[in-house]
Amino acid sequence: MSSHRGLATIFMILSCAASQPVLCAQDDWAGGLVDQKKLDFGVVATGSSAVRTITVTNKLNTQVHIAQVTTACRCAEAGRPSKTLLQPGEKSTISVSINTRSFRQQRDTALTIVFDAPQFAEVRIPVSVYIRTDIVLDPGKADFGAVDEGSSAARKLQISYAGRPEWKILDVRSQNKSLVTAVTEKKREVTPADGINVLYELDVRLASDMPQGRILEYLTLVTDDAANPYVPVLVEGRVVPDIVISNPSISLRTIPAGQEVVASLVIKGNRPFAVESVDFGTMKEFFRTEVSEDNAKLHVLKLTFRTASGEGRFVQPMSVKIRGRKQPLPFTVSGTVVAPNSNSR
Questions:
Q1: Given pLDDT bands bounded at 50, 70 and 90, which one contains residue 198?
Q2: Which residues contact 183 (CB under 8 A, 6 or more apart)?
């Protein structure tokens, strides 16, 4: 009997190695795809927005499918994965937020990620948070929405405190130099009628030098609380380009050597702007254009290409410099140069 069990065990091991070499090489293949083993939100204020992101990376040599994402308590809410079917090397993000308006004090729950390919598996991630009731943020975050690049914007939040009349906010910390903050005391009463002893106003300004892309930052209010001095404040938004190239990839027709061809580069802006120069890269001796110094919302530049005696295909990165902007706008010109007697299209 024992010999039969031994043979069965060897057969199972060999079958596993032949069919799923990657999965059998690790005890918890699904857990190894998730970058967080637990989510501890720490101490947050009532009404505040508390969000964390989990990343799932397919480290296997086969497809991975996320079938479901759930939480065990409504105090934590999971968003839909950014991608459910992952090819080898691909990533998916899952946002987890705390419901600080409906729940209070200590909350412990779990996030469960269910996989159904390449085989069934569940990953359970503990989630914990303490929602303090003496501090309320209104609104719960500084949400800038979409802001044009090069523009500034401002948001205001009220911070209400019910407790010690001498309670203070000592500082506001930010790791992003493009977020400028100021906090102003608006009210301080020993026995208030509305139960709010101290009221502050927090000003958050987005500087004009904030680069393009998503904004997801946390400010930290530093208070004089001995036990829990720090209060996080979420800042969200997106800096979008206010000046764009409508045709960033220009493909020229087939050109006989020694001839000229003209293409148009279209640049649009939300406000009038001026084009300073065009950088043709390593092909600057073959391209030319005329740049107007006028301010306008639309610029159409005529790019003239004079072919050389050589033949072949080229793909040339180029850029446009906008007056008053540090970062140029990139574009690409490609084409094929053929012998003079070749038929061109």
A1: very high
A2: 159, 169, 172, 200, 201, 202, 203, 221
Measure the CA–CA gap between 69 and 125, rounded to whole angstroms.
11
Given the DSSP bridges, would you call strands 260-273 and 296-306 parallel, antiparallel or unpaired? antiparallel
Greatest Cα pair distance in the chain = 94
Coil, helix or strand at residue 93? strand
- pTM of this prediction? 0.73
Task: State whether residue 29 is helix, strand or coil.
Answer: coil
Tally Cβ neighbours within 10 Å of residue 15. 11
Per-residue pLDDT for 1 more than 80?
A: no
Distance CA 142, CA 144 (A): 6
Give, in order, the Cα–Cα distances in Å from 75 to each of 209, 220, 246.
Answer: 37, 23, 45
Residue 113 burial (10 A CB sphere; 0-12, 13-18, 19+): buried
Cβ 250 vs Cβ 331: under 8 Å:
yes
Evaluate whether the domain defined by 24-133 bears CATH number 2.40.240.20: no
The candidate with the shortest Cα–Cα distance to 70, out of 53, 94, 46, is 94
Answer yes or no: CATH 1.10.10.10 is held by domain 139-240: no
| Token digits of residue 107 | 């909350």
Range 9-35 average pLDDT: 57
Do the beta carbons of residue 235 and residue 142 sit within 8 Å? yes
Q: Give the residue extent of every domain in the chain.
A: 24-133, 139-240, 243-338
